[in-house]
Amino acid sequence: MEVDDRTMQSIAAYDEHADDYQHAFRMKRPSTAIRRFAEWAGRGALVADVGCGPGTDLRLLSDTGLHVVGIDASLGALQYARLLMPRTALVRTFLHDLPFPVDTFGGMWMSSAFTHLPRAQWPQVFGHLMTRMGTGPVYFSCYLGTADMESVEDATLGTVHRSQATGSEVESLLVNHGFDDITIEVQPDPIVDRRRPWVVGMGRR
């Protein structure tokens, strides 16, 4: 899969501003969802934090008793995550090309992981990720809407490109890959602006 130039520009923004991003948002995390995800995965499960960035959720997931692998395409973000979690496995890779065998993980945490991908790539990338996961839970969040790589000025990152999805689109991703106990909720954005809605999907298989 060809990586979109706008995706690369967004990755570069995280490379440059990983420290600022982590400090700005480290206290604004979906703690309730993390606890539910951990209960579904089971203590000691190996899970992936896909699009982990500078480690904002790695420690919270690890503190629940999960074994977590952080995955991101931004070297700068992973370097900062290494400072926070020196013993955690971190892997730099694009989301469509995970270097793990089939069924490696017992859960995948994807908090805004697809935000900087063109909408047309979402089904293929999600399908690839799901081949690396056997049974277990998935958490998937994104901005609510239909924007496709819209250029925005982020107060922390500068110029980035963001895509959105509807609740039905997120539900279809989960249904099409065999998930049960699916919940789809529209929630206030916990990170930047509570007036801006997010779609949060969870399920397990």
Describe the protein in words.
This protein has six helices and ten strands. The protein is α/β, with parallel strands linked by helices and 205 residues long. The strands form two sheets. Strands 1, 2, 3, 4, 5, 8, 9 and 10 form an eight-stranded mixed beta sheet that branches. Strands 6-7 form a two-stranded antiparallel ribbon. α1 (5-25) packs parallel to α4 (75-84). The longest helix is centred in the first third of the chain and has 21 residues, at 5-25. It is globular. The two termini are 27 Å apart. 41% of the residues are buried.
Task: Summarize the structure in short.
By secondary structure, the protein is an alpha/beta fold. The protein is built from six helices and ten strands.
Along the chain, the helix and strand elements come as HHEHEHEEHEEEEHEE
Instruction: Tell me the fraction of residues in β-strands, as a range.
Output: 25-35%
Largest β-sheet summary: 8 strands, mixed
Can you count the helices? Answer: 6
How many β-strand stretches? 10
Large-scale geometry: globular
Rounded Rg: 15 Å
- Summarize model confidence as the mean pLDDT: 91
List segments where confidence is low: pLDDT < 50 over at least 5 consecutive residues: none
Structural class per helix/strand content?
alpha/beta
Query: For the terminal residues, how far apart are their CA atoms?
Result: 27 Å
Helix percent band: 25-40%
